[in-house]
Design brief:
single chain; disordered N terminus
């Protein structure tokens, strides 16, 4: 009887046991379905539809440009300050949308999670790809503006753009897994995330430039500030989009605004992002056994 039972269970796995993010890769078709569904219904019933992907960041840019560029005079001390500002804003918007929606993705899909088993990581990951879909039109607008101002990047600057997107995606995914799994049982996580997102724009050189931070902080604080993966990613976007539009393209001039070791801090930022991804996945796997009953 025991032998027969062993034969019947051979090759089977315990229900609900998976391989984390690897299962998302193995079930890419489900990921495509989730992304397609959310993208299609996001602007359903909207007159402007996809144009909202352009209107919202443009409105945000105008407000900040007038407040920071005109009233505070930052555009007078920096060539093409509008590109510097907008390149940082679109990246911050990408992170905020991914992190915020990814945190709520499990609770928002509670009905589906309670009915069937599927890799629960699908929901935060799909939030990331949806944010990426909304992010790309903004990058297109930024690219068109940069081309108008004589954008002429080299290979390292193009690499910097891709590396910045990778840093933000990995970091936001790790944080979404971490806070999303906690949010299932403790809805206070959403309030914590809202507070984090409130400070995100101000903790990176978007509405101000890097030299202002360097001249008003100690070397230790400035070093710690640059270890922030979002700061590293924003500096990479400045290096990739803003720097190639400068009339003075000397390394000294560019380094004075993006830092002399932009690639070095990018490596640090990517490493820290992967640490958060590992922590987020471990916490997610630890808590997911209770998702169905807590939801």
């Amino acid at each position: 009887m025991c032998v027969l039972s062993a034969d019947l269970t051979a090759g089977m796995t315990r229900p609900g046991r998976g391989h984390g993010l690897l299962d998302v890769f193995h079930r890419r078709y489900l990921l495509r379905l989730l992304v397609r569904k959310d993208v299609q219904i996001r602007y359903r019933g909207s007159v402007l539809g996809w144009f909202w992907s352009f209107i919202k960041p443009t409105a945000q840019f105008i407000v900040y440009y007038v407040a920071m560029g005109q009233f505070l005079g930052l555009n007078r001390g920096m060539e093409n300050f509008a590109i510097y500002l907008f390149s940082g804003l679109v990246l911050i918007n990408f992170f905020n949308e991914f992190f915020g929606n990814g945190t709520r993705s499990l609770v928002d899909n509670a009905a589906l999670i309670k009915k069937i088993y599927l890799p629960r990581e699908l929901f935060p990951v799909s939030s990331g790809f949806i944010a990426l879909v909304n992010f790309l039109p903004q990058v297109v607008v930024l690219l068109i503006v940069c081309l108008f101002f004589g954008w002429h990047p080299n290979a390292s600057q193009l690499l910097a753009i891709l590396l910045a997107i990778m840093i933000v995606f990995v970091l936001a995914l790790g944080l979404a897994l971490l806070f999303g799994s906690i949010d299932v049982s403790l809805r206070d996580a959403e309030s914590v995330v809202e507070m984090i997102l409130m400070f995100t724009t101000w903790l990176s050189p978007v509405l101000y430039n890097l030299p202002l931070v360097q001249t008003t902080t100690s070397p230790t604080v400035f070093f710690t500030y640059q270890l922030n993966p979002i700061t590293a990613a924003v500096n990479l976007f400045h290096f990739g989009f803003w720097a190639p539009t400068q009339s003075d393209a000397s390394p000294e001039h560019i380094a004075s605004f993006v830092g002399p070791h932009v690639m070095q801090y990018a490596v640090y930022g990517l490493a820290i992002s992967f640490v958060f991804l590992l922590i987020g996945q471990l916490v997610f796997r630890r808590l997911e056994k209770n998702f169905a009953q807590d939801l």
